[in-house]
Design goal:
Layout: E1 25-30, E2 45-50, E3 56-64, E4 75-87, E5 90-98, E6 103-109, E7 113-116, E8 119-127, E9 132-141, E10 148-154, E11 166-170
Antiparallel strand pairs: 1-2, 3-4, 4-9, 5-8, 5-10, 6-9, 7-8, 10-11
Length: about 170
């Protein structure tokens, strides 16, 4: 039982439903005690209006599929797996694979990709939480030596974990 002037603080943590980003959520609260003659009922109700924002943890995993590695004069295939770990839809997802001068773009499968010089860009669009897109890139090997091939994924949705937005393969 509360006495006059007592204050009770109740903290409540909640999870909002997917798809509520940008919508105002009204969270009302009220207090009553039928055993008390409340002379000021104007302060018995309050509400908090919140507008959740979206975040989406996108990432990329890159691997060389060609079992013999990179050999001059031969073709090699890289697999790039792009994923959204959520919790929100990732908007306007783009994969960029910047080929080193030792490699030349040939073709791609699994997504619509274009090449401008050494930069291969795949516009993946929106990805829902849990979505995974696997892309294979074929390249010609032009030079020998140690070759490092990086790839990066981006989204217009804020990403709380940028550490998994980049991967690379060295062979």
């Amino acid at each position: 039982r509360m006495g006059s002037g007592d204050v009770v603080v109740i903290n409540r943590t909640t999870t909002v439903a997917p798809g509520t980003e940008g919508q105002t959520i009204v969270n009302p609260a009220s207090v009553t005690d039928p055993a008390i003659n409340d002379t000021n009922s104007d302060n018995n109700e309050s509400q908090d209006d919140v507008t959740p924002s979206a975040i989406a943890d996108v990432g990329v995993i890159k691997e060389l599929l060609t079992p013999t590695g990179l050999n001059v004069g031969r073709q090699a295939t890289y697999k790039l797996t792009v994923y959204n770990d959520g919790p929100s839809t990732a908007r306007d997802v783009v994969l960029v694979d910047t080929l080193p001068s030792a490699l030349a773009y040939v073709d791609s499968r699994g997504a619509s990709c274009t090449a401008a010089g050494q930069v291969v860009t795949c516009q993946l669009g929106d990805m829902d939480p849990g979505d995974v897109i696997a892309i294979e890139l074929d390249v010609d090997v032009l030079e020998s030596g140690t070759i490092t091939n990086p790839a990066d994924v981006t989204t217009t949705t804020p990403d709380p974990n940028p550490d998994n937005d980049h991967d690379q393969v060295t062979d």
